[in-house]
Amino acid sequence: MLTGLAKWWLERKAVSFTSSWVEAIFAGAKANSGVQVSTNSALQQTAMLRAIMVKADISQIPLVLRRRQGKGAVDAADHYLYDMMLHQPNGWMDGVEWVRTTIMHFAATGQAISYRNIDRRGRIRELIPIRPECAAIDVNTMMEMEYTLQLENAHQVKCGRDQVFHFRGPSWDGFRGLDPVALGREALGLAQATEKSQAQLHQNGVRANGLFKLAGKPPQEEKDRVREMIAATYTGANAGRPILASDALSFEPLTMKGSEAETIQTRGFQIEEIARLQGVFTIMLGHAGDQSPTFASAEAFFGAHVRYTYQPLIRAFLAALNTQLLTREERAEGLHFEMDTSELLRGSLRDRAEYYKAAIGNASQPGWLTPNEIRIDDEWNEDPSPRMNQVQFPMTMRDAGEPPPPTTPPSPHAGA
Questions:
Q1: Which InterPro entries does the UniProt entry name for this protein (predicted)?
Q2: CB atoms closer than 10 angstroms to residue 80
Q3: Is residue 127 a contact partner of residue 165, using CB atoms and an 8 Å limit?
């Protein structure tokens, strides 16, 4: 059954979206734990929200349009998409905000859609993110994708594949990304149920950690008086105050029940389930489990996080950008988008100094970087000296095919 919010949304928007589709966003479906799980309720789970934000943190890496030049590449600053995607994809968002919003939609619902505002020359003027609940995807009889978009100004737009940027996740039908909330409904539902049970346990501001006993068989009036005294003295803001007992009133502490301890453990397990659902390491969600990471293991975890979470996501994102925002001719010219993750893997100053020392070469080992390339890598200006653009080689080495240096004949008087 649709919630009041979903009914209001349907009536206000007056669009052709099916009620079952809107229900998946707002009301969701009931899990075996007995709670309704929807995209909206999933975002209220701190572990799920944090996992989504962790993925969206790729927005800290600049999205740059580059042009291949020889074996390397240079910034394509002369192309109109360079400034637009790096700084301002639309009139109210900067590049970081657009990437972050796009990845949040993608991680939460399995796909992200932006409307392409195109000018008379056929160029993209703006990329306008569409909320997942405001986009419907269909496939017509010609196997062409059709989109029905509800813009923030209440205008409805029906458009084709060439009028949107559609970044979808793993797909079963090849058109729509799989919805992680629908697939992980049971894990999210159990997380919601355990959180709700814990909240109800503390709802009155006091935990049932002890038993008050009255001596003898007091009348009901005395029981009511003592109950009101306890409620006024030891609950709410007074919870945790020292308990005073007399001969007529005693207090017996209660130990934690096994079921309560199991509930706390279950909450930890559900964080791991949500991390597994989103494909991130639990340490990135602030949950180390039974193992407290050391500096060395934390660094290894973060390196694995970049390689196994960020890089596959960035590769898929760049593939979508290259194929949807660039024409075939532009790609043939070597234009492509880049997000350099090497900055995330940079070590300490000491580690970088050791790497640069080996890269520049020494008396027994040839180098592979020039001093100016190292300066550029550290965002320093180039040194104009010609020697700063030369790779260093040991004095004993020479290029293949180069004749050996002339030798000085021995003196006829040598050894005399």
A1: Phage/GTA_portal, Portal_HK97
A2: 14
A3: yes
Q: Both ends of the chain: CA-CA distance in Å?
A: 112
pLDDT at 206: 47
* pLDDT at position 96: 96
* Radius of gyration of the chain from its Cα atoms, rounded to whole angstroms: 32
Q: How far is CA 64 from CA 13, 82, 124, 229, 248, in A?
A: 37, 6, 16, 68, 77
Spatial separation of the C-alpha atoms in residues 35 and 154, rounded to whole Å:
32
| Residue located via tokens 């990329």 | 127
pLDDT at position 218: 78
**Interatomic CA distance for residues 250 and 211, integer angstroms:** 8
CA atoms within 13 A on the CB side of 278: 33
pLDDT at 409: 64
For the chain (416 residues), the mean pLDDT of every run of 10, in chain order, is 48 44 58 84 91 95 93 91 96 96 96 94 93 91 91 86 94 92 90 79 57 76 79 67 66 58 72 91 80 64 86 96 96 95 69 80 80 80 85 65 61 59
The CA distance from 18 to 291, in Å, is 47
Rounded Cα distance, 368 and 374, in Å: 10
With a CB cutoff of 8 Å and minimum separation 6, the contacts of 246 are none
Contact by Cβ (8 Å): 6, 28: no
Tokens 């000296």 appear where? 385
User: In a 3-state reduction of DSSP, which class is residue 264?
Assistant: helix
Query: Residue 380: what are its φ and ψ, rounded to 5°?
Result: -105, 155
Residue written as token pair 């660094």:
299
CB atoms within 10 A of CB 282: 20
Residue 153: per-residue pLDDT: 80
Which pLDDT does position 294 carry in this prediction?
Answer: 59
**Spacing of C-alpha 207 from chain mean position:** 36
Assign 9 to helix, strand or coil.
helix
DSSP state of 383: P
Which sign does the torsion angle of CA 308, 310, 311, 316 carry? Answer: positive
Q: What are phi and psi of 179, to 5 degrees?
A: -85, 115
Q: Are residues 56 and 103 in contact, defined by beta-carbon separation less than 8 angstroms?
A: yes
CA dist 393 and 366 (Å) reads: 5
Residue appearing with tokens 């104009």 = 384
Rounded Cα gap, residues 405 and 399, in angstroms: 12
DSSP class of 308: I
160-163: Cβ within 8 A, 24+ apart: 162/116, 163/115, 163/116, 163/118
